[in-house]
């Protein structure tokens, strides 16, 4: 399959980072790539920041089930037209219901990557269609068993997805300069990302406004707020001062080494920052095996599940500023793998079929 086209589909900012770095790796090995995405959050500006070519098709359907379904149907139809013309050899997805449905319908092999067994609806729509499923060894095999078919081939790697774009990172010059023009690294700042309340798996009451209010009362510095949705942006701009709400994506890996703390109601930026040695808190309201793994390896990621614990960790980390140095990080990195190791193995297996 070397020299043929690999299609990578992107639905979230995390996936944008992952698929960009996988594309770099694949192109270095002789593959051609095409990245498709949807209009949502910071995806498009993030890909632009990393000077990655992409085709944007469709958008997020919001909280409503009917609107989610309509957005999926429209995107599936539009993707079908494009992918039928491109005729890629394989799809790599994380996982995308519309991408998987198109690939399956057009007879294109599907490689899925995943670290969220709790995303039941998406997993039901995608994993049964997959030829290969790749996930971290942090996640137990049985976690994905309800979704796999007898023919699904499983590959695991000893690491987490975020290692793909954290280790040996070199920022694009223009993206770095743009980020530094917005934030003064000589003054204290916290990076804050709210919970993903419109995801199908999120069944909890939003608390980001409460968390943000507490941080603002405890921290004498700037808060960099990264909204997922427009209502979060409006809420923050109306009620808070000394806060930065970027219009487009920032190069967060330029900021992590100088941040006082990183807090999120999700997980990705907490893992990213922790993998770079910066103290981070995830207040996603349930245990996730990947977060637990990152903490167990010795990275400064703190997982909290209630308000009392969250406040305690905020107070402690703002006072102690615990951070890992480069030598400590390098020692842990040597024991871990990037997900691209598994992806390359799968593509080699496809080449030999």
3D architecture notes:
This protein is an alpha/beta fold and about 350 residues long. Helix content is about 40%, strand content about 15%. The strands form 2 sheets. A 7-stranded parallel beta sheet has the order 3-2-1-4-5-6-7, with helices on both faces. Strand 1, helix 1 (about 15-30) and strand 2 (about 30-40) form a beta-alpha-beta unit. Helix 1 (about 15-30) runs parallel beside helix 2 (about 45-50). The radius of gyration is 20 Å and the shape is globular. The protein starts with a strand and ends with a helix.
- CA-to-CA gap between the ends? 10 Å
Task: Give the low-pLDDT segments.
Answer: none
Provide the structure class. alpha/beta
Radius of gyration (CA) equals: 20 Å
Total number of distinct structural domains? 2
CATH class descriptor of the largest domain = Alpha Beta
The percent of residues in helical segments reads 40-55%
Under CATH, the homologous superfamily of the largest domain reads Glycogen Phosphorylase B
Total helix count? Answer: 15
Q: What is the level-2 CATH architecture name of the largest domain? A: 3-Layer(aba) Sandwich
Portion in beta strands: 15-25%
Profile the largest sheet: 7 strands, parallel
